[in-house]
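Review form for a predicted model. The reviewer records the input and the model, then writes brief findings.
Reviewer: anonymous (R2)
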Amino acid sequence: MKYDALVVGSGIGGMESALKLGDMGYKVLVVEKEPSVGGKMILLSKVFPTLDCASCISTPKMAATIHHPNIDVLTYAEVEGIRGDGNGGGYHAKIKQKPKFIDEAACTGCRQCEMACNVAVPDEYNADMVSRRAAFIAFPQAVPKKAIISREGVSPCTYECPAGIKAHGYVARVRSGEYDQAFDLVLETTPLVGSLGRACYAPCEGECTRGELEGPLPIRRLKRFIADERYGQAEPKAVEKPEQNGKKVAVVGSGPAGLTAAWQLARKGYGVKIFEAAPTPGGMLSMGIPAYRLPNAVVADDVANVAAIGVEIATDTRVDDVAALKADGFDAVLVATGTHKAVQLRVPGEELEGIQSALTFLADVKLGKQVDLAGKKVLVVGGGNVAIDAARTARRLGAASVDQASLECCDEMPAHDFEVEEAKAEGITLHDGWGVNHFTGNGRVETAVLKVCSCVFNPEGKFAPEYDESKKQTVACEVVIVAAGMGADTESFGLETNGDRTLKADPGTLQTAVPHIFAAGDVVTGPTMITTAVGQGRRAAFMIDRYLQGAQLDPSAFDETLPIADKTNVLARQDVYDRREPFESPAAIRAAPDDFDETEAPMTEEEAFLGAARCLDCGVCSECHACVDACPADCIDFSMREEEIEVDVDAVVLATGFRLFPADAKPEYGYGTFKNVITGMQMDRLLAPTRPFNAVVRPGDGKVPDRIGFIMCTGSRDAQVGNPLCSRICCMYSVKHNQLIMGALPLADVTVHYMDVRAVGKGYDEFYKQAKDMGSLFIKGRVAKITEKDNGDLVVRYEDIEGDGGIVEAEYDMVVLAVGVQPNTEAAGLFEDGALGLDDYFYVGEADEDLDPGRTNLPGVFVAGSASGVKDIPDSILHAGAAVAQAAAHIEKARVAGEAGVLEAAKVKVTS
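Model under review:
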C-alpha cells in the first residue's frame, strides 16, 4: 500500500498533523498502539488555564480523524520498523496489527461482552486505580468505540492439557458461580466431563502458576464439581441436536478417543455410529478404572451425552474388516480401539491356572462379574497405574494379602506417587526392584520366584531389563494378576501397522494409508493418558470433517493457539500476594477397604469457589466464552492472529508523545506502597466526569479527603533520577487540580509543596494567582519523605524555606505527586537505516527548533508535538502545524521529482 504520509501516534499532535495533511488532499495512514485515538488528552478532566472540558475539545478531533476520507487509522497497532526505500524518495514501514479478537465491522460497542466478562485486570485508562475486564472498551469516549479482548498468551493450565480443554475458562466460570456454563465449556471439547473430573491425572495442575506460590488450584476437582452439579440436577440441561448434513461416519471403539470424536462429529451434523465389541461403551473408563476412582454411573452419564446428541452406539459388535464399512454407507471410518490386549511375561509357569491379566480382572470386576478372592493370597505383577488399580481392587475383594512386584524401584515406578502411597496405606506389600523369574505349582499357581532387577532401561532408554540372578525370593500366591503392559489388537483390520502393532497413521492428520480411514487414541500412540486419547479424538474429528468437506488436511489448522503465558511475567504483575492456602482433601484411605465407595470426597460449593478464586488469570482472557454467549452481534473471533502490514510513504511524522515519570522511582514518597499516595494523572481521573468512582475519594478506603497535599517536581529537575529538565506542565496541571478540588470538595484544605512555580503561558500566572485566592496554600520547600499512619493518613516531612527554615511535618488524607515528563524513546528505535537524531535529553532532535521546527536529521521524517520536547496542548497544536508544513513541502518535492523522472524516462524512450 502507498500513502503520502505516515503519522505515528494519535495524541493531539498526531491527530492535528493527520487532519491538516488530510485536508490538503494527502493520503495519510495513522498508526496508534492503543485501542483508541486521542492520546493522554482524552483522559484528562479539564485543560488549563481555561478549565474547558478535555473531552469536548478532543472528541471532535478524534471523530474527524477516524472518519476523514483521506485518513486511514490503524488502532491497537505498532510500527515495527521504518527504512528508506533505497531510492532516496520515501520510506517503507512494517506495521504489526495486534489481534483484537473482535470483528470491528460487526461490533456495535454495546459493552455486553465487557459486562459478561469475569476476568478483572488493572485499568490503565483509569491509571490502575480500578479494574477493567479482559473484554473491554477503553473508555466511554473511545474512538472507535469498539471492544477489544486482552490476551497475553494461553494460560499454562490450558496450554498443558492434552485434550485441549480450556481449563482456565471453566475455572473462571466456577469462580462466577456459573456451573452450567462451566460444564458446557468442557463439553465443547469432550463429553467425558465427569470421568475426567475423577480419573484425569491433571497435568494442568503441574503447570499452574499458583503452584509457584503456595500450591496449584484444584483444577481437576473443579471439573468433577461441575459434573456433579450437572448430573445431580433433577432435569439436567438437554443436549442440543444439530441439523444433519447427510454424511455418515463409523467409529470403531468407544473409549475416550472414540467417544470424543463421535461427539465432535455429531456436533457438526454428521450421522455417527459407534461399534463397540464390549457389552458396554466407555473403553477403559467402564472396564479398566475401578469404581472407587470412577463409578460406573458417572461413565454412564458421560456416555449419555453422546447418545443424546444422536450418536448410535452398538455394543457387543466387533468389527474386523474396517474397509467393509464403506460399503455399509459410511463416508469415513475412525478406528479408536485402544490397547486392550494384555502383554505376557513370557516366563516359565505362566500357563498355570490362577494367573490372569489385569485387564481381564479389572473388566470382570467393573462389569459386575463374580470374582472370588476372599481369603486368597494375591500377587500383582507390574509397576504402572493398572497394576496399582488391580492391587487395590483385589484388596477390596477380600484377599488375605496382596503383594505387588515391580521391576522399577518405588521412586521410578510408572504409577503416580499418590497412587503408590495410597496402595501402601491400604495394606499392599510392595516388592519394588523385583521381577518374576518363574511360577511354580501343581496345575495351579502356588508361588512366584522373584529376582532382583538391576536395570530396567538400556542407555538408549528402551525397555531392556537386566537381573541379578544371585538374588531371589519366593512369594506364596494363589492368584497372580499380571499388568505387564498393554498392546493394540489390530491384526484383523488389514491396515498398515508399526512394529508394536499400533496402527500407522499420519501424526498430524491421523489419516491411514486408506484415505477414508483414520485412526486415533492408544491404537495409534500406544498406552497413554485419558486426556491424550481425548485430544487424539478431537484431532481425528477435525481432520475427518475437513476430509469430507474436501478441504486440505492441514495439521497446523487444528488447535492453533497463542504462545503460553510466561509465568515470570504473570507473577511480576504484583509485588505482594496474599497467601491463600490450597484446598486439601486427602482420600479416605482405610487399611483394609471392603467396598468400592469413592475414596475422594466431592467438593462443597464454598470449597469450589475458594479454589477457583485463587486463579491468577495468567493469560488474562480465560477463554471462558462468556463474551461469546453475551454478544448479540456474534462478533467475537478467538481465531484472530497478529498481522504484518507493509506500506510505502513519502513522509513520516513522529507524534509519539511523552512518558510520565514512574512515581515509584522516588521510593521515599511511598508511591505503590501507600495506597493514598497518587499521581497527578490519577488525580485527573478522580476529577474527570468519567471518574472511576462516584465521588472524589481516596483510593485506599473510599474516604472523602479533607486535607490534600501536592508535591511538585516529582521526577523533574532531579538529576538523581536522570531527569534534570523542568517538565513545564506539572505546575499548571497541579493548579488546575487545586481549582477543581475546591469546586468538588469546597471544605477541603489543599496545600502545595513547591520549589518554584512555572507559569509562562498565556493566562497561566493569573490562573496560579486565582488558585491562591481560592484558598490553596503554597509552601516553598523540598519534601524529604512520606510515611503512613495506621488509618491510612500520610505524614509529609519537608523543609519550610519561607518559614523558619526548619524541618516540618504535615498530615494529609491524600498526597498527589505532580510527576514530571520523560521522553518517549520508542521513536528512535523505529528506524532500521541510520539513527534518528536525538537531543541531549533524548527527545527527537530538530534541525532548529526556532527557525526550522519539526524537521529531523532524516530527510522526509518530521516530529510533531511533545515527542520533540515537553509542550502544553496549545504548543503541541502549533508545533504539529509546523511539522505538517515541512512534511507537505517534502511530499510535493517528491512528487515533482517523480514526475520529472517519468518525463526523463519518456524522452529516453522516444530518442531510442
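Findings: The mean pLDDT is 94.
Further findings: The radius of gyration is 36 Å.
Recommendation: see findings above.
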